[in-house]
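Input record (one chain):
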Amino acid sequence: MLGNKSGFAHLVKKEAPNVIVTHCFLHRHALATKTLPTSLKDVLSIVIKTVNFIRSTALNHRLFKKLCQEMNAEHEVLLYHTEVRWLSRGQVLKRIFKLKTEVSLFLEEKDNSLFEYFNNKDFICKLAYLADIFNHMNDINISIQGPDTTIMDATEKLQAFLSKMSVWKIRIQNGIYANFQMLDEFTFENGSRQDSLLSNNLKDAICEHLEVLQVSFEKYFNLDEITKKDELWIRNPFLCDIDCIDDMDLPKTS
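The corresponding structure, as predicted from the sequence alone:
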């Protein structure tokens, strides 16, 4: 459909050069969110290994569920990560963060070396950030779905999200994590905000990801092109600029 040489879009543009071709916003959003710096990619890899270890056998799955029940945990099972499901990553990260204590105990009982990561504050902070940022991206993904959503609606929401990331980066650099609920709660409860070395490492990792994420979104979405002034009539066709009205159209005064 979108091939540069023989795709449908290319053939149409040959006949109508001014036609605008756009790719599904949801697909582009899914592609834009895949980019992760190495430090955070390692965290995601460890999370997936942990989930696979616990969910790979029926015995482990039952034992972990029993442990969660005994500890009165909010949830009882972990979720699988599936690349083809756009909301999967955020849900998996959020669930494993909520069950981090139970996961650590279970891995230690099973003599699995992965439990060491869940006793590491730096790792948990990065896990909390990933759960928060993917939760934000899941909210955006859901908000641009539905039969009543137009390309203008989706564009404005994505532009707002990009603007928020710039603000988030500044706030993170100043040690303010309020926009990331799970990270904010964990750092407050564990006194990580007073640990300058951990805090600096965390800030660098988060700021790096926010920068990479912004570049990725700008690569897949040409948002300025959609909302340029000449096309604002799409949003409100009855809105006019008095400076653009011809004198002949103005009401005559006596």
